[in-house]
Amino acid sequence: MCRYAWNNYKPHFVCFNCRKTYKRRLFEDIYENGDKAEEKQARCPQCGGYMADIGTEFKAPKKGDLKAWKQIEKLYQVDFTFHSCGCSGPGYVPKNEAELKELLLLRLGLFKENLKAWRKAEQDPSATDGVSHDKAQISKAINCWQNTIDKVQKQLQTLG
Q1: 110 and 72 in one domain?
Q2: Residue 139 belongs to what domain range?
Q3: Potential cystine with 82: which of 24, 49, 55, 90 (Cβ 3.0-4.6 Å)?
């Protein structure tokens, strides 16, 4: 059963500069109705820089493991985070650049399949398994997948 279905857990935030992680209270834990104030982006208590919302399933490597931290940062740069329902446990972190490249190529294939499905929906809106989407939603999805694909391809170019 999904661990996060019944309870709220604090999200994990990462500062790549300090190589530290922090948990942050949920906005709805602070205010009963979320319209009292606008939630601000998390900042690192040590350096003051912005932190990345990495997900509740993230398991941080040791602070001195620079290679692992670099891999995680590269994954984050292509929108790879550790958000899940809790069933799969901590996410996979590649141990070297070859594994990172393999993971990115796998994800790239999945992203291209999603883009293809949305482009098909653009041509025939009834082709989305009975779920109706308006043109604006379809266009937004196509742009999102294309941007993600571009980020992954750029990251793959840096890996060689």
Answers
A1: no
A2: 97-159
A3: 55
